[in-house]
Amino acid sequence: MSTTSDSAAQRRGKAPAGERVADWADGRLGIYSLAKANMRKIFPDHWSFMLGEVCLYSFIIIILTGVYLTLFFHPSMGEVTYEGPYVPMQGVRMSEAFQSTLDISFEVRGGLLMRQIHHWAALVFLAGMFTHMMRVFFTGAFRKPREINWLFGFLLFFLGMMTGFTGYSLPDDLLSGTGLRFIEGVFLSIPVVGTYISMFVFGGEFPGTDLIARLYPVHVLLLPGIMLGLLVAHLILVFYHKHTQYPGAGKTEKNVVGMPLLPVYMAKAGGFFFLVFGVIAALSAIATINPIWTIGPYRPDQVSTGAQPDWYMGFAEGLVRVMPGWEITAWGHTLVLGVFIPIVLFPMVLFAIGLYPFIESWITGDKREHHILDRPRNAPTRTAFGVAWITAYFVMLVGGGNDLWATHFHLSINSITWFVRIAFFAGPVLAFIATKRICLGLQRRDKDKVLHGRETGIIKRLPHGEFIEVHEPLAQEQLHMLTQHDQPEPYEIGPEVDENGVKQKIKPSQRLRSKLSKGYYGGDNVIPKPTREEYREITSGHGHH
Amino acid sequence: MSSHEISEAEDKLPEERGAASVVRPADDPFADPGLPPHEHRKQDIDERAARRSERTVALLFTVSMLATIAFIAAYVALPVDKYIYVFPIGHISALNFALGVTLGIALFTIGAGAVHWARTLMSDVEIADERHPIEASPEVKSKVLEEFRTGAKESGFGRRKLARNTLFGALALVPLAGVVLLRDLGPLPGTKLRHTKWAKGKRLMNYNTMQPLRPEDIAVGSLTFAMPEGMSEEQHDFQTEIAKAALMLVRLQPENIKDKRELDWSHEGIVAFSKICTHVGCPINLYEQQTHHVLCPCHQSTFDLSDGGRVIFGPAGHALPQLRIRANDQGYLEAMGDFSEPVGPAYWERG
């Protein structure tokens, strides 16, 4: 071709193999354009940004080990008599699901390890998502343009709980069967259609013979499939939005400071996958998880004490345990509020935090993009709300383990239950107030540091005998970091009567928004950050105090 | 250090980096000072330190290779049923322990090597990249909106209302086919939840021995479990039936029974209650003999068996159903009918 220069033609002749492969792929996939934007993409570095990576890697580990387990697991409730090598279960009737789980644990070499890695990784996955979510929440990383990605992440957390629950129900052991019986009770409590849902899900009366076979595709295909889609979307948005960064010198809303994807981030993140996998594998070697062989197969008339769900269901368990047993029976029908209310509350409490970004942006009316993270103290109301939410969550976690608290700490189960009932309402309020005070205190301290410098701990005696502590002025980087945040004005409705004396129509939602906005940015909820004038006035004075 | 290395190190000094682009008015004490100068690591300026780092990385990767070989060796050499004592864990499967530890080391050292490489040998110069607003420019926006309007107009979606509305109708109806297909997931509830295997004249079988129970088998202070005569584990519906029929028996002093009906339905102080908790259906298995309370281990609902199975604590909403029993002429305990109310958790049609 006339447009091709000679040198290019020459080079093509002896291009290295890697480049030729890349050329081939580029001609079909356009990888060079993709790489141009992404190969040297900058990722900021901070330990808290690794929490999301833990989730990603544990998800991959779960899929790898899960595929392995499907090769040996039989999702069937067909009854068999155990004849395998585990002596205590010989001659016991059990479902094929339980038997194949015993086989994986005792006969497949490495099967037990894969089972334990799968289960441990699931626990780490959920814990990782919880802490990652909290990091994003408290730093305000969910703000525009990332609200949708927060929602994707939240759905991953919610579906992760569901996938975990369906997963630990599959072995059909006594503990998980008890959990499924609880699910039957939950279905039955639904007004009007509860019994129908229960019959349709279980294929008849509990436990029936269909459930494990039905849960199986939900656990291995449906839920993970949806989660994989959400996960990919989550990561695409992380790339597209570029990562947030903590405030600091040289960091602005218009840039992103860090290391390039190739090579540093790739090496660190790729290495981190192996670190996570390695730790979980070692954990699975030394710490038994879900030893179904000591629990035994499910029989609906048997139960063991100290029955506990996996930790991430503990919150729902707590709601169910501490709810008073309200039942209303009238006109031949029963409203099972004692079960139905907690089971409605459970997603509602979760969705309160899931929808928070939209609530906050409505209250504050903030339409700007945010890429610099908030320091939690600078958003006292949000931080206080988050801590209140966590308080409610952990109170219910205590409720979910009330029997263990009672037996381990020699307490009365009734007192614990009553404590949880009260603390579920009082705890978040107290936590909210305390957190807000702490945040404002920290803001005051920041202001003090900016204006008067850092306390050095050095005591100086002046010629006339007075002792003073030497304060050291902050470096400019620190001055910038402590003063860079915004302090927006609260949303105002405007005058009720306009200049022509006509009364404006003010919607109740506007009033609510204005009130809430004052709660975020109003006078008592913010310590005005030091101004340049204040700073100059003090620093130009005589010495430091 | 050679002069060449020093000049190379000087190339990395901060002046060249993006810091200069940040505006820094002299009169603003809070102004952004820009990216801090890059501080060299030992490896950046001392090639011997860099080589030491490289050797550390290589050592970690070598350990990984050895651990993988050890993993394979353990898989081949260790029998699956060998148990060893490992302090402080206890007696554990040797194979699981060996495989897990070797795999853990093999994976962890790859990660540690890669991270060490990245931290000590790859450039640690921070780079600033620009961000661009997510939202499109006004020109792009207006062009897209115009194209959309053109497309919408060409489709006639707004004008051809009949076609549009019937399309909505068809799309709304067609998922019903899928909903209808779900009908055969299970039977309709009917009155299934109201009945159990208990019936008049059915003897109470000891849950462990499967022998019929006599009144003298039930000792004061113990909790005895029973199932209806004629049930066995081999039956295909055993699990479903035992989920409703499970029964527990205790012997009380008749004068301790507070509820009149409970006394009437008992035999010589022996009372029979459903074992299935009325909260969400866990089997109840904890009995406090001094107080005659039973406690469900799942959610801690507590029932008073001396007072009609009344709920005294916890989330259960109604009393445990009692089974009316008597001793037949051969001296065996038998049921005088099914439970008078549905056992287990409450539901909408229960009433």
Automatic annotation (TrEMBL), chain A:
InterPro entries: Cyt_b/b6_N (IPR005797), Cytb/b6-like_sf (IPR027387), Di-haem_cyt_TM (IPR016174)
GO molecular function terms noted in the UniProt entry: metal ion binding; oxidoreductase activity; quinol-cytochrome-c reductase activity
Cell location: Cell membrane
GO BP annotations, alphabetical order: respiratory electron transport chain
Highest taxon in the source lineage: Bacteria
Transmembrane segment boundaries: 49-73, 117-138, 150-170, 182-203, 215-240, 269-290, 335-359, 379-398, 418-435
Stated name of the protein: Cytochrome bc1 complex cytochrome b subunit
Organism per entry: Streptomyces antioxidans
From TrEMBL, chain B:
Feature: compositional bias, Basic and acidic residues: 1-18, 37-48
Keywords linked to the UniProt accession: 2Fe-2S, Cell membrane, Disulfide bond, Electron transport, Iron, Iron-sulfur, Membrane, Metal-binding, Oxidoreductase, Respiratory chain, Transmembrane, Transmembrane helix, Transport
The Rieske domain, residue ranges: 244-334
Top-rank taxon, per record: Bacteria
Membrane topology: Multi-pass membrane protein
One cellular-component annotation, GO: plasma membrane
Biological role: Iron-sulfur subunit of the cytochrome bc1 complex, an essential component of the respiratory electron transport chain required for ATP synthesis. The bc1 complex catalyzes the oxidation of menaquinol and the reduction of cytochrome c in the respiratory chain. The bc1 complex operates through a Q-cycle mechanism that couples electron transfer to generation of the proton gradient that drives ATP synthesis.
InterPro entries for the chain: QcrA_N (IPR045603), Rieske_2Fe-2S (IPR017941), Rieske_2Fe-2S_sf (IPR036922), Rieske_Fe-S_prot (IPR014349), Rieske_Fe-S_prot_C (IPR005805)
Organism: Streptomyces antioxidans
Identification of the protein by name: Cytochrome bc1 complex Rieske iron-sulfur subunit
Subunit: The cytochrome bc1 complex is composed of a cytochrome b (QcrB), the Rieske iron-sulfur protein (QcrA) and a diheme cytochrome c (QcrC) subunit.
Record keyword Disulfide bond present: yes
Molecular function GO terms recorded: 2 iron, 2 sulfur cluster binding; metal ion binding; monooxygenase activity; oxidoreductase activity, acting on paired donors, with incorporation or reduction of molecular oxygen
